[in-house]
Sequence to fold (436 residues):
Amino acid sequence: MSHIVAIVGRPNVGKSTLFNRLIQRREAIVDSVSGVTRDRNYGKSEWNGKAFSVIDTGGYVRGSDDIFEGEIRKQVELAIDEADVILFVVDVEEGITPMDEEVAKLLRKVTKPVLLGVNKVDNAMREKDAIEFYNLGLGDYTTFASTSGSGTGELLDNLVAAFPDKPEPTKEEIELPRFAVVGRPNAGKSSFINALIGQDRYIVTDIAGTTRDAIDTKFDRFGFEFNLVDTAGIRRKAKVKEDLEFYSVMRSVRAIEHADICILIIDATRGFEGQDQSIFWLAEKNRKGLVILVNKWDLVEKDTMSTRDYEAKIRKEIEPFTDVPILFVSAHTKQRLLKALEASVQVFENRKQRIPTSKFNDYMLKVIEGHPPPALKGKYVKIKYCMQLPTPTPQFVFFANLPQYVKEPYKRFLENKIRENWDFSGVPIDIYIREK
Ligand code: GDP
Ligand code: GDP
Fold:
């Protein structure tokens, strides 16, 4: 289980510059398929063999200097709730501002590890200026400069050293597939789960308040046992009512990271909006299985909007990862709820499937022969062998004489061909081209 680091601080101290630096190296790998960075505010990083997620809270509460103090306060409180380590960034150029003091006041009360990072320490002179930050009452600090990267190694050392030990997951937690029900507030997550629980006599137990603070319900359906994770329950517990992107996304991070499958519930009357998209890409980035449920379908006038049009609209938004089940459901009328579960179980199976190397080569090498990678600078790329890697999520490697000449469009072509022949619906896949 990777740790979650939240970067907090007032605007313009350099949070996003630091964030970009932290996620840089890993990002190139994570986004090798889509080729785009979808979320400016969330990323994965690794240091000394420890993987962690980074959330730039400032990225969600973007604003100018007149950003409300209340907003910053909420941002910090949420970071305190959701992150394992809080990285508080201040700016040596500006020195301590009243808003820094506000944030420090909140952070002094926290039992979680808090790291104070003094940014923009571009030279030795500023090293001395940084001393004033002892006045924040947070103890020692680390100085760095996110633009040049100087000092960020030490910052990362300190960050990783501050990671708390995570409780070992129980045997059951390891073994049972986890289906997280995610979506923005009021999309109908709890209604969906309640409807399932209410009608489902196969339900086994309610495990409330597990080590992960989520509310898990164990299901036994279609001869298949799994935990349904209610993220709405987490929100309710914390009494956060705001319908802001930042909150629903941040609240989803942990649940998504711990899940195998994300059941993304959207509100049919509102469409596939910004928050839905953020949550979708968060799941995709984490290589989780995905199912989209368009809930409250009972409220939609079927003459004005057909499922086909609606579906097409969503698929447009999730390009290029369009191979995802989309179902139209109603938690109220219980329409297609079991179908939705069934689809989720199928995605779980898809994500687990392993294609035998011989079968994979037989099919893919023929495809490649009929449609080889385009020649570049008069050089021909030859792919002679390929296989699925023994990884938890589907990854495929193609061995080529000139791997650097195989560009994104061709990788996408390979991915499409894989999807045409094998069912990877709802499952993000990775394609790597390596030198043979
Ligand atoms: P955020 O609002 O906290 O996310 O801040 P940004 O990352 O957008 O940075 C605000 C400004 O500070 C930008 O103009 C950056 O170029 C600048 N900045 C960030 N890091 C450094 C640094 O290490 N040294 C200097 N001199 N400027 C920096
Ligand atoms: P959550 O915040 O995502 O857990 O959303 P809730 O389950 O609390 O639902 C938010 C509101 O939408 C409640 O008033 C529900 O009664 C309503 N709602 C949820 N699902 C449906 C549905 O399928 N049809 C209709 N008409 N209303 C729904």
Notes: The pocket of guanosine-5'-diphosphate (ligand 2) is lined by residues 183, 185-191, 232, 295-296, 298-299, 330-332 (CB under 6 Å). The CA atoms of residues 92 and 130 lie 6 Å apart. The chain has three domains: 3-162, 172-352, 357-435. The mean pLDDT is 84.
